[in-house]
Design goal:
With 384 residues, the chain is an alpha/beta fold. It is built from 16 helices and twelve strands. The chain has helices at residues 19-24, 45-51, 56-60, 63-77, 90-94, 116-123, 136-149, 161-170, 178-186, 188-212, 229-245, 264-267, 289-294, 308-314, 334-348, 368-380; strands spanning 2-3, 82-83, 99-102, 106-109, 154-159, 216-220, 250-254, 272-275, 278-281, 299-301, 321-325, 354-358. Strand 9 (278-281), helix 13 (289-294) and strand 10 (299-301) form a beta-alpha-beta unit. It is globular, with a radius of gyration of 20 Å. The termini are far apart. The structure holds coproporphyrinogen I (1CP). Coproporphyrinogen I (1CP) binds next to strand 4.
């Protein structure tokens, strides 16, 4: 176990009692916390204005800009967390992989990784050599952001090895990630090496964010839903566990005055040591929820395809859930959206705790005033 430094927002007590952190730790809050995947980005006019003339990955590596973009949706919507503005391919770029993000398309790689030799070329960069200097711009952006956020937690994130491999093997976005799924069977040894390398690079990126001040971390395995449970368990889950192991050891102590709403341990005068909460999310992963929890996550993100009560049942009713408003509903008439959000909140009661989110990212054409209204609705809602 490794203690976070005393100035970290969790260790210093600024975010340890927040609705978000407590919900991820399974303690139901009177007010359900809410944030949105892709809350920073093209739905916000202030984002589009700031990004003019700056390429996506340059924006991610400019600490002042990345920090400002992260803060924009927190100021505007009053959400319960910031999600660090970056991208899942940023650590690959920092590890020397030639990648760019093309507007309207997504990550595109100069060289696709298709063979064992291609994997060996990646391995010429030893992930263990990626030190503080590699992630200096990331750590600086996180520090700038958490200084502004005060007692609102920042969520750090990284891409899970499979989702990153889905881009690396294809060389860019793909529909069914078929080349990646072929490689895992055609050359399981090369596949395992690719997954281990990616896990360590992504894990180092996640660790840099948490050490610099993030109060929770989310692993995005966005495309894991294209896998069968058997393939996930055999060829993917070990690497996702490996990615999370880079932050699993990070702990802090909750120091609350007895009787001030502190934990049982604190009230009994015992040290209350907790780990930084880890969330695991994927799209179309209804069949994988249990396996995705088992890799070492504290909470599981659920997309909009299965209701939260069913997701909670599949997780044995013991795992905090996050989700799962259908992004398509954001453009529906307010009464339709409102009824849907209330339904999600009610179903979320089946889990020990619930963080309201979308089932996937905010669509770029979303009217941002609708998101603010959803936040107000969630914050005003109470379990009957
Ligand atoms: O120029 C632009 O504005 C490009 C659009 C954009 C943005 C705003 C991309 C390209 N990435 C991002 C930021 C981003 N990416 C965040 C920011 C923080 C926030 O949520 O507010 C996050 C968490 C990501 C993570 C990410 N990138 C994921 C996982 C989450 C998810 O949406 O499933 C994935 C799959 C990517 C790849 C990616 N990057 C960008 C695009 C358009 C894509 C998807 C491409 C595809 O469809 O395959």
């Amino acid at each position: 176990m490794t203690s976070l430094h005393s100035g970290h927002p969790l260790a210093a007590g600024r975010t340890a009692g927040s609705r978000l952190v407590r919900s991820y730790q399974g303690e139901r809050q009177e007010v359900t916390p809410v944030w949105f995947m892709r809350q920073a980005g093209r739905s916000l006019p202030e984002y589009r204005e700031l990004r003019v003339g700056t390429r996506m990955l340059d924006a991610c590596l400019d600490p002042a800009m990345a920090s400002e973009i992260t803060l924009q949706p927190v100021r505007r919507h009053g959400v319960d967390a910031g999600i660090f503005f970056s991208d899942i391919v940023v650590p690959l770029k920092l590890a020397g992989v030639a990648v760019e993000i093309q507007p309207g398309k997504g990550p595109v790689f100069e060289h696709a990784v298709r063979t064992a030799d291609d994997v060996s070329r990646l391995e010429e960069t030893d992930p263990a050599s990626l030190g503080d200097d590699t992630f200096a711009a990331i750590a600086e952006a996180v520090r700038l952001t958490t200084a502004e956020l005060g007692d609102t937690p920042l969520i750090g994130f990284a891409g899970a090895p499979f989702t990153l491999a889905a881009y690396l093997v294809e060389g860019g976005p793909s529909k069914d990630h078929i080349r990646a799924r072929t490689l895992m069977h055609a050359d399981p040894e090369a596949w395992a090496r690719l997954m281990a390398w990616t896990a360590d690079v992504s894990g180092a990126f996640l660790r840099a964010q948490v050490l610099a001040g993030a109060s929770a971390a989310q692993l995005f395995d966005s495309w894991a839903g294209s896998l069968s449970l058997a393939d996930y368990a055999e060829h993917v889950a070990p690497a996702s566990a490996r990615a999370l192991s880079h932050v699993r050891d990070l702990t802090y102590e909750v120091a609350e005055a007895p009787g001030a709403g502190g934990s049982e341990a604190a009230e009994a005068g015992e040290p209350d040591t907790r780990n930084v909460p880890l969330v695991h999310f994927g799209v179309g992963t209804g069949e994988l929820l249990k396996a995705m929890h088992d890799v070492g996550a504290d909470a599981v993100g659920v997309d909009y395809r299965i209701p939260l009560d069913e997701a909670s049942r599949r997780l044995g009713h013991v795992v905090p859930v996050q989700g799962n408003v259908d992004p398509a509903m954001l453009d529906a008439p307010w009464p339709v959206l409102e009824a849907h959000v209330r339904d999600v909140l009610r179903r979320g009661l089946e889990a020990p705790a619930h963080v309201l989110n979308l089932g996937h990212g905010v669509p770029p054409e979303t009217d941002p005033t609708v998101l603010t209204r959803v936040v107000e609705l969630v914050h005003a809602w109470r379990a009957a």
